[in-house]
Specification:
This protein is α+β, with helices and mostly antiparallel strands and about 290 residues long. It is globular, with a radius of gyration of 26 Å. The strands form four sheets. Strands 10, 13, 14, 15, 16, 17, 18, 19, 20 and 21 form a ten-stranded antiparallel beta sheet that branches. Strands 1-2-6-5 form a four-stranded antiparallel beta sheet, with no helix packed on it. It has two domains: about 35-115, Peptidoglycan hydrolase domains (Immunoglobulin-like, Sandwich), CATH 2.60.40; about 120-290, Glucose Permease (Domain IIA). The protein contains four helices and 21 strands. The termini are far apart. A hairpin with a 2-residue loop joins strand 7 and strand 8 (about 105-115). It has helices at about 1-25, 125-130, 135-145, 285-290; strands at about 35-40, 45-55, 65, 70, 75, 80-85, 95-100, 105-115, 120-125, 165-170, 175, 180, 190, 200, 205-210, 225-230, 235-245, 250, 255-260, 270-275, 280. Bound molecules: zinc ion. Zinc ion binds near residues 187, 189, 191 and 272. Zinc ion binds near residues 169, 187, 191 and 272. GO terms for molecular function: metalloendopeptidase activity. This is M23 family metallopeptidase. InterPro entries: Cell_wall_metabolism_enzyme, Dup_hybrid_motif, M23ase_b-sheet_dom.
């Protein structure tokens, strides 16, 4: 009786041991993609780098998405890809899943976006100033510029300061207009209080892809230069008094491209520099201090 009872139990134990051995000894595991976020816990306004290592350099770039929104990935070294995810002060704080697909493999990465306090300003506008708006012409040209995603990479290393003047308004400052908090507004760049006529230099190499003037209808931005640094990274310089470059020119880091002014909607001479990644204005400070590859 005892023997008969033990036998089935023995067989069950034996098969469990066999399964355990098979698992440990490596019945083929799903191969993992080598993707990582840097930083994984960014603050509002940071640019997140997605690094992806593939087995082979395929012609098809990896796909990087958050809720179906695609972020272009570029080859930066053999079998090594990089995509940028811009974050802004308007983004919702918290976790989101970044889906990376390459060579038929998928990896989910958790991006934990952390809160950051931005200073606030109160602006009181009279009716005339409140009515000053972007013209359709400048809106369309500036929007098209911000959407550029040139496959080449022109920049290298950390970005330079584009003007010697002190920073008067940093990135991300939020505003109250006539006492009402502007939900969609944040300061999309950095202001330098350089003297009228002082040099504006290219902070990094790139191609001039936008030149707009007051005469053409740039009533809000004033005289404007847009430099494409490649791969979805672009600088815009506004309120200029002088423009030294033409569309199509390639510029080097440190090259004088124009001069500080107060054209467009500016209360006094200053340079506004906006740095855009995949169409969003991000904090240029990490790009200035550490540089992004
Ligand atoms: Zn500004």
């Amino acid at each position: 009786m005892l023997r008969l009872k033990l036998k089935p139990l023995f067989l069950i134990v034996l098969s469990l041991v066999a399964i355990a051995i098979a698992v440990v000894a490596g019945v083929p595991k799903a191969e993992a993609l080598q993707a990582a976020l840097s930083p994984a816990n960014p603050l509002l306004g940071d640019t997140v780098t997605v690094w992806i290592a593939t087995k082979q350099t395929t012609k098809t770039p990896p796909s990087v998405t958050i809720n179906q929104k695609q972020y272009p990935a570029f080859l930066v070294a053999p079998n090594r890809w990089r995509a940028f995810i811009p974050t802004t002060p308007l983004d919702r704080v918290g976790d989101r899943q970044v889906r990376v697909v390459a060579e038929g493999l998928e990896q989910m990465l958790t991006l934990r976006l952390l809160d950051r306090d931005f200073p606030t300003q109160s602006i009181w506008l009279d009716e005339k100033a409140a009515a000053l708006d972007v013209s359709d012409y400048e809106y369309e040209r500036v929007s098209a510029f911000k959407q550029l995603a040139t496959p080449q990479k022109f920049w290298r290393g950390a970005f330079l300061r584009p003007n010697d003047g002190p920073v008067t308004t940093g990135f991300g400052v939020r505003r109250y207009y006539n006492g009402v908090f502007a939900n969609d507004y944040y300061h999309r760049g950095v202001d330098y209080a350089g003297d009228e006529g002082s040099a504006v230099i290219a902070p990094a190499p790139g191609q001039v892809r936008l030149v707009g003037t007051v005469a053409q209808g740039f009533q809000l931005h004033g005289n404007t230069i847009g430099v494409d640094h490649g791969q979805g990274v672009a600088s815009i310089f506004i309120h200029l008094s002088r423009i030294n470059v033409r569309e199509g020119d390639f510029v080097q880091a440190g090259q004088v491209i124009g001069a500080v002014g107060s054209t467009g909607a500016a209360t006094g001479p200053h340079l506004h520099w906006g740095l855009y990644v995949n169409g969003e204005s991000i904090d240029p400070v990490p790009w200035r201090e550490q540089g992004l590859q």
